[in-house]
Amino acid sequence: MSNTARLREFRLPDVGEGLTEAEILKWYVQPGDAVHDGMVVCEVETAKAAVELPIPYDGVVQEIRFAEGDTVDVGTPIIAVDTEPGAVEPGAAPGPGGTEAPADGTARAGAGSAKPTAGTEGVSGGDAAGPAPAAQPGEPGAESGGTKREPVLVGYGVAQSSTKRRPRKPQPGAEASVAAAAIQGELNGQAAPQPAPQAPGGPVGTGTAAPAAGHGASAPSGATAAGGITDMPGAHGSTAEPGAPAAAAPAAAPAVPAAGGPAGGRVLAKPPVRKLAKDLGVDLAAVVPTGDGGVITRDDVHAAAAPAPAAPAQPVPAAEPAAHPAPAAEPAATARETRIPIKGVRKATAQAMVASAFTAPHVTEFVTVDVTRTMKLVRELKEDPDLAGLRINPLLIVAKALLLAIRRNPEVNSAWDEDRQEIVRRHYVNLGIAAATPRGLIVPNIKDAHARSLPELATELAGLVATAREGRTTPEAMQNGSVTITNVGVFGIDTGTPILNPGEPAILAFGAIKLQPWVHKGKVKPRHVTTLALSFDHRLVDGELGSKVLADVAAVLERPKRLLTWG
Q1: Is 36 part of the annotated catalytic residue set?
Q2: For the whole prediction, is pTM greater than 0.90?
C-alpha cells in the first residue's frame, strides 16, 4: 500500500451554518499518539461557539499542521494520521541500522542536534534501533562510492525517495577541520578526533540530514566546521558550506542565535507563526529564534511583541553633567497599548451588530413598571415543593410574559426576507437569551419555547445559561432565533437600547429591579420597580404593534395572575 493511501488528512469541517473559519483552541493529541474513530482530537472556536472535533478514523498522529491559537479556513487539513502505522511498502528497505528518520526529514538528537554515526547518516541517535552492521568486502555498500540508498520510513510512514550518493572528494580545509577539532577537544578535556575511514552511508561526520518529503530543501546540517562534532557548543543548526575554511569555535560561551534565523538572511518560520507575527506587528527579521535549526517559534514572536523589561540598575561612576544631556529613552510602543486580533466570537458579534444596525431600522420604546407582585410570586414558587431543584428567578417570569405577549400579538413574530421580498410569519418561538461569556456575547435560544410549561422553561433556561458560560454552546443552539431577551439588570443597569439579533424582529432589555418610592393605591410606598426596553425592526413592526407587545409584558409583570387569565 502506498504512503498516500496510508496517510489520511483530517480537514477542518464546517461545524456551523456557512462558517468559513475557526480558531484552534486546544489540541488533545500530539504526534505519535494513537487515535480511534470518534475520538475528540481538538477543540475549535467558530464564529458562534467552541466545538470539539472527533476524528473519523483509526491510526497514529503523524503531524499536527496548526498550533493552538491559529485561525484556519474551513476545508484546510489540520492533522495527518497514519492509518497503518508500522507498515512497510513492498520492496522498501529500512534505513541503515533499521532506523526511521524523523517526519520532518531533519536529524534529531536530544535538543535537536544530529549525531551521525557510521551508516546512520541523517538519523537521530535516539531513534536508531541499534548500530548498523559493518559491510563486508564485496557486499553492497562496502565501498563508499556509488552506494545506493533504498527508501526509508520517515516519521510514521512517509517514505523517503531513494538516492544514489557519489564518493565525496576531499574538501579543502579538511585537515584544518581536524586540527581545529583537536584544539577544541583539548580545551574540553576530550581526546583529539582522528580522521575516520569511509563507512556505509557516506563519509563519517558529514551529518547531512535527509531532505523532508515534499519540502524540496535540505535541513540545516548538524555538523560543525570542526570535523562533524555535534556536541560542541554552537554546533546546532550550523550552515557551513562544504569546503569552507574551518574556524575553531570559542569554548568559553555557546553561540547565540542571530536575529532572523541562520546565516544567509533567510527567516525560518512556519506559516502560522508568520501570520501571528503579522497580526502582532512583529518584524520576523528582528526576532531572535530559539527553535531547532534557527526556526522562529510562537514564543519568540510573543517575546518580541512584549514590552522590553526594564534593565536592572547598575552602579555607574559619577560623571559631570553633560552640556547637552541625551534625551531619555521613550517607552516601547507596546507598553502603552495592546493589540488583540479580532477573531472568533468577537469578530462574529461585530459583523452581526454592524449588519443589524445598518440594515434594520431600529426603534426602541421604554416602560417603567411596578414588579412587586412578580417578586412575591418568585418567592412563593421557590418554596413550592413541585418546583424543588429548579432555578426560579424574575427572568423566568419575564420570559413567560414575553411569550404570552407574542401569542396575543402574533404579527410581531416575523422575519424579513430581503432576497425574496417576503415577510415570513413564524408559528413557533425560539426564545433567545443573550449571554455574556469569556469569549464574548452569544445568543443561544430555547427551541419551541412557546410550548414549554413553566417547569420546562425553567429547566431549559438554566441549562442554556450554564452551557453558555462554560463555552459549550453548539452552533445549532444559536440558529433560527425568533426573539431575544437581554438581562442587563444583572449588571445593575436600569435599561438600554439593545441592537437586534440579525434575522429577529425584536429584543427586550430587562433592567435592574430596585426598591423605589412608588405611588400605590394613592400612597407613596417603597415598591420593586424595573424598566423594560423593546427594540424592534420598523420594517416589520409598526409603532402601534411594538407598543402593544411592550405594554402586555409590563402588564403581566405588574399582575402575574394575567399569566392565567390571559393564557
Answers
A1: no
A2: no
